[in-house]
Amino acid sequence: MAAYQAIKFLHEEMDYPIKPLCELLRITRSAYYRWLKHPESVREQINRQITKDIRTIHEKHPDMGYRRIKDELKRAYKINVNDKRVLRICRHEQIQSRIKHPANCITRCAYAPYYKAKNVLRGQFHAEAPNQKWVTDVSEFKYFIGSIVKKLYLSAILDLYDHRIVTYVLSDTNDLDLVFDTFDQAVELEPEAHPIFHSDQGFQYTHVNFFRRIVKADMIQSMSRVGKCTDNGPMEGFWGMLKRENYYGRKFTSREELVTMITDYMKYYNTGRYQRKLQVMTPMEFHNNYYKAA
């Protein structure tokens, strides 16, 4: 379901052609158009409701494994499904009991300096107002000093309501400070914002000090599943758009030239690039229009 939603979003919002998106995600075009016409089957609708109930049970009883969740569904919710179906849904939603695993399992130590959040966003890329949902990522760019290849890293935060870039930071190193500085700038610019904050599971975003920033800012942290770039489709789409329009096919021969390109593009994107999904307005026009209408 998330893959189909990502294709729809990237095609409608970023003008990506459907055929290569389907090939990338190993989905036939006929299957995609079939989903587009009938997004949910009856079984999928039932599964969606069961998933909602499972999440409710898990939040109340995080110690429950899938077998106990199945029993709870039957007794408290009058939903009779088999163990395998509940297990399949739990795995898809990354729900598991808080139990002690055998020593040979891959587990996270309580004292380790990282924190992994659930995929709270779950492919719901629509927002009803500014600062409800933010997505973020880091992307790599290259420039050349003679024959030597240098790298520049861009960290950005994108608002899912108006698609504006809330803030961004450039750095020669992809480290904790890059992501921390980006987040701190966003909080300074939008001190009243308390969005769902979605990222991948990069080392900066899982660091305990980043989690503390999230808590202090009263935000809800959300993370993509491992290897599922479609979980952060809007941010991936923005990187693709930036690089397709102003990076690919060009050779930058200085850091200053590359920085100027990125800086100019960010300004153009926010204030000069019209988007049909924003009623043929720029992100900042759409953003400001919300407050005028309120």
TrEMBL record:
Source species, domain of life: Bacteria
Domain spans labelled Integrase catalytic: 126-291
Stretch forming the signal peptide: none
Stated role: Involved in the transposition of the insertion sequence.
Protein name (record): Integrase catalytic domain-containing protein
